[in-house]
Amino acid sequence: MTRKIAPSLLAADFAHLQRDIEMVNHSEADWFHLDVMDGVFVPNISFGMPVIKAIAQHAHKTLDVHLMIVDPDRYINTFIDLGANVLTVHYEACAHLHRTIQAIKANGAKAGVALNPHTSVDLLEDCITEIDLVCIMSVNPGFGGQSFIENTYDKVSRLKTLIHKKNTNTLIQIDGGVHSGNAKRLVEVGANVLVAGSFVFNSENPTVTIANLKKEIS
Questions:
Q1: Which H helix or E strand runs over 164?
Q2: Mean pLDDT, residues 147-158 taken together
Q3: How many CA atoms lie within 13 A of 15 on its CB side?
Q4: 173-189 pLDDT per residue, tens
């Protein structure tokens, strides 16, 4: 089973961003997770194209870009051109989800779909075979450092059942409130990729924290 750690740069020290990128490069982390927020779809603004361009110049691992924005179709080409290897859009922001997924793939990236805590995994049944990654939001999107929503375990289990039913290789990602106390259980119920922000970057030694998380899920 694929099991990956994806530190979220939203929790990095922006005054020392290159330092934190190099830390992730040399750690046991697998991906960089980049949250793009527009202040409309979620009540916060994070970073946009110039910052992602700068990150891509220094990052040596997969760039996992999570668009928490309205009308993401307008920017698919832009973010992939900037270096996104995985591009995730929100189910709630897409009027024509299948078309959006196809556009991401046509431009050479893996297609991800994120679900807010209130959104059922059953809504993906008709297009799950086209989706490379489903990002389960285990907090309400928009801010880092929130507490993990306990219903996430059941949601992951239901999604895993759907993936098996459709005989597809879709990865399950968990975004929000991931820490050493829930990482092992999350992979046991079916998660493949764990996004960790505050837990990593606020720790005394982020490299060790990543290594310990990786060990717990291996």
A1: helix 152-165
A2: 96
A3: 0
A4: 999 999 999 999 999 99
Helices 17-25 and 206-217 sit at what angle, rounded to 10 degrees? 40
Which of the residues are catalytic?
A: 35, 175
CB 172 within 8 A of CB 192: yes
Can you read off the two tokens belonging to residue 202? Answer: 């606020």
For residue 98, what pLDDT is reported? 97
Residue 177 zone, left/alpha/beta (φ > 0; ψ -120 to 50; rest): left
CA-based nearest residue to 155, from 137, 129, 178, 167: 137
DSSP 147: P
Backbone angles phi, psi at 171, to 5 degrees: -85, 150
CA distance 98 to 103: 9
Contacts of 120 (CB under 8 A, 6+ apart): none
Structural tokens at position 106? 């046509």
33-85 pLDDT tens trace? 999 999 999 999 999 999 999 999 999 999 999 999 999 999 999 999 999 99
